[in-house]
Amino acid sequence: MTNTALYASGFNAFGQLSPGSEKDITELQELVTLQDADNMEEVKLLFTGWSETTFYQHGKGKSSGRIIRHGSINTTLDSPLAELASGFGDHNGLLGVYNSKGGVAFAEETQVEAHVASADSLSDDETPGVAHLAIAGNGHVAVILASASSPRNSILEFTAFEKFRQWFDDEVNVYHGPRISHSVPGRVAQLVANVTGFVCLTQEGNVYTWGDARHSSLGRSVAETEAKSPGLVESLAGIQIKKIASDGWMTAALSEHGAVYLFGTATPGTQHTISCLQDLDSTQAALVEIESKGEALDFLDIAVGDGHVLLLAQDGHVFGAGDNRNGQLGLGQKASNHVQDWSEVTIPDQYRCVAVYAGPKSSFFKVER
């Protein structure tokens, strides 16, 4: 039988990684939250923010499962929806969740309540749901609706979560409508946000970015497609990308063949950088090259925080670089506050890492043995 666990490191001022403590975690520590879970395979990391970490434990039988919140809010409650896909929130914590069928539930103080919206502006017989939703650090919201009639390539952008919520409650309310509607060629497979913008991945493997173009964060030229509209990251065109991750001013992309590409800036306003980004043109993405025993590594997973990056190699080894002021790279107390070159993260004995995740100033490692 596979034994699975979840470890974490980094910013813990609200006890979001280790309840009962406010001390940052500089070495990988098993999450107290989940040590009593019957089956770690059934636990999903839903949301990782500045002040809160939220998990979803799948239900059995007729149960929709449980939502476990730690940090600025500490509570465990029954999930109002089954098969949760993701959560969304801001620096204050969780704002809501949605499931694989497009169902949405909004966080109301310590509760998470399912939402049913009217659909007058969309269809006479459909209730709008959410296929993808991301909230940028500047408060902007990007959402792709889930409905039979939606081509899943239309992206609605709101200037504030409150405006999205008011519109979602009553879609015919033009005053609270989206600031702008975008479209990209092809069906969107993934939508993520960073501090001032968004990144989306289509099923064809193309990457599009929009938002603030400073600090090379878009990874593309704004000459043909302006910064506020989705533009193709041309340096990745022709490469089959299967996953993206973004936060702060950086974005990582993982290809079908196990290559990782990185663009943006780790910590703007400082002299610190990640070695592969040094002297990189603002329209280019850097190919990450790490060798082991004389051969270049291929990768299985990527995660990006607000200034740091995690890479999971196919052999199970994990590497990190970037901001480490809160110990988020899990390299120990003696590690530098900023790590320029890729450094290996020590995984607990007898475990093998199978997935990595990142919050703004934290890291998470799913391990098996």
TrEMBL record:
Domain of life: Eukaryota
InterPro entries tied to this protein: Ran_GTPase-activating, RCC1/BLIP-II, Reg_chr_condens
Entry-linked Pfam families: RCC1_2
RCC repeats: 205-257
Protein name: RCC1/BLIP-II protein
Organism from which the protein derives: Aureobasidium pullulans EXF-150
